[in-house]
# Entry
Amino acid sequence: MGVVDAVILMGGRAERLGGIAKGDLRVDGATLLERVVAAAGRSRHRVVVGDAGASVLPDDVVVVREDPPFSGPAAAVAAGVAALPRRADAAGEERAAAEDVAADAVLLLAGDLPFAAEAIAPLLAAFAGADADKADGAMGVDETGRAQYLLSVVRRAALDEAIAVAGRLEGASMRRLVAALRLVDVALPGRATMDVDTWADARRAGATAGEVGGTDDGSRRAIGTAPGPTTEGAST
# Structure
C-alpha cells in the first residue's frame, strides 16, 4: 500500500476534564498520547500537533502547534501535514532521497484514543484494498455508525488538495475539511473508537492520573471522581 505518515492531534482545552492535560492520563502505564504515537509506529514520519505534556516520545516524533493555538481540529491537521515532508511537484521537480519526500498516505489520529492500535490494521487493510480511482482513503466508523474523522487514513495528494481548497481553517470542523474526500467506511469495535472526553470516559478506559499536586515517588491513582470542578457535558 505504500508508505504512510501520521498526524496525531493533541490539542483542545479538555474543558470536560476540568482543563487538565488530557494526553497525560495513563492506561496500562503509558500516557494516552504515548499509546497513540506507538500505535502509529509503522509510519515513516509522525507529527504531534499540540502539547506533548508529560509524555515521553521517540526522538523522531515532531511536535508542532497550529497557529493560532486552539483554532480547531481542521487547522491542527493542516499544521501537522505542513510539518511532514512535502510532495514533489507535478512539473517534474527533482525528487530528493525517498525519506525526504511525502508518503503516499497520512494517518489522521486523535491523541485521546487509548486503544487506537486496534484500529490501525483494519484501516490500512481497507485503504490498501480500495480502488484508488474511487476512494481517497478509509475512515473508522463506531458501533453507532458515527464517523470518526480522526481515525482515518487519507491519500496524501487528496489530503493536500482538501486543505488547499478548504480556505481559512481557523475554527473549521473536520467535517468541513473532509467533505470532498471519498472515504471508505470501516466498521470498528467499540474499544478501538473509544476516546476520552469526560471523567466517565476515563473511568471506562481504565485511565489513571497523577495525584493532585504531584508526588515525589511518581505514584498514580485510579480515577474515581474528578479532582475538582469539571464541566462535563459542556462543549469543547
